[in-house]
From TrEMBL:
Pfam families: CMS1. It comes from the Eukaryota. GO terms for cellular component: 90S preribosome; nucleus. Residues 30-42 have a biased composition (Basic and acidic residues). Residues 1-13 have a biased composition (Polar residues). It comes from Oryzias melastigma. Residues 43-59, 79-88 have a biased composition (Basic residues). Residues 1-98 are annotated as: Disordered. The lineage of its organism: Eukaryota, Metazoa, Chordata, Craniata, Vertebrata. SUPFAM superfamilies: P-loop containing nucleoside triphosphate hydrolases. This is Cms1 ribosomal small subunit homolog.
Length: 291
């Protein structure tokens, strides 16, 4: 409805309005505002739990972080444990080294090393043997029989001349009783009619060995340095007929140790050499061979 005023008359028109008035627009906007506000509040309420969850996560992570950092700091402060290197055994060293035949110098070095803190300088000089005191050494190609034939070519004559009891012509020294039995078997091809005796402690009493040596004539003695030294000390064995001392130097046991590498055998060997063999070598009565 539209109203027209013209001085004296007022005319009301019933024609429809195409555009809303300013007042109507304001009313519509006012109606929209509360609806928008309620929608905004609802959206805020939806977002709030998400924010609280994020905040909780942050707090939890913030709480965990100090613990982690503390443990890291503690780990850094702790001294790092050094890995202990395994000490190399004689077996390891010998397994990695080349097998070389023994020489007189090896025996001389062993004697000097053993007696260095037990003898004076002058006494150490007396323990040194001349080159003439040694037989040729085994070059790792010989059997025991072939080696003995090389170093003692006149054996047939020597064995016939030997007639003394409680003494032997050849003394073969090894590291164990089992090895002694092996060597007695190996010497069969060399000895001929000569007699070989066992001179070790395993299953054999010393009294029995003394009686055996006194009864008959033995040409070759094969045994361990400990028992041989004990027999010499007890006068069950003498060195009057002795001409050759053969050391089973190059043979190695299961741990690849030679007789000079085993502490207890080395000790017994030094005692044996000191019990009269060194002096006999200096007098040129006895010669030492390294088999």
């Amino acid at each position: 409805m539209r109203t027209f005023t013209d001085d004296s008359t007022t005319v009301t028109s019933c024609a429809p309005r195409l555009y809303p008035s300013a007042a109507e627009e304001e009313e519509v906007e006012e109606e929209k505002r509360p609806v928008e506000k309620t929608q905004m509040k609802a959206e805020k309420r939806k977002r709030q739990p998400e924010k609280t969850a994020k905040v909780k996560k942050k707090k939890s992570t913030e709480q965990k972080d100090p613990v982690v950092t503390q443990t890291k700091e503690m780990d850094e402060q702790k001294p790092k444990k050094k890995r202990k290197r395994k000490k190399k055994t004689i077996t390891d060293v010998l397994a990695s080294s080349e097998l070389k035949p023994g020489s007189p110098a090896d025996l001389q070095d062993l004697v000097t090393l053993y007696f260095s803190d037990k003898r004076s300088v002058i006494e150490l000089e007396e323990l040194k043997l001349a080159d003439s005191s040694f037989l040729s050494s085994n070059d790792l190609t010989h059997t025991l029989s072939s080696y003995l034939k090389q170093v003692c070519p006149k054996w047939a004559k020597i064995q016939k001349q030997h007639s003394e009891s409680s003494s032997v012509v050849i003394l073969i020294v090894c590291s164990s009783a089992l090895r002694a039995i092996e060597l007695i078997k190996q010497v069969t091809a060399f000895k001929g009619e000569a007699k070989a005796v066992k001179l070790f402690a395993k299953h054999i009493k010393m009294e029995e060995q003394v009686k055996l040596l006194q009864k008959g004539v033995a040409h070759i003695g094969v045994g361990t340095p400990g028992r041989i030294a004990a027999l010499i000390e007890k006068e069950g064995l003498n060195l009057q007929a002795l001409r050759y001392v053969v050391l089973d130097w190059n043979w190695r046991d299961q741990k690849l140790r030679r007789m000079g590498d085993i502490p207890e055998i080395r000790l017994d060997l030094m005692k044996l050499l000191e019990s009269g063999i060194f002096s006999a070598c200096r007098e040129e009565k006895v010669k030492i061979g390294l088999f």
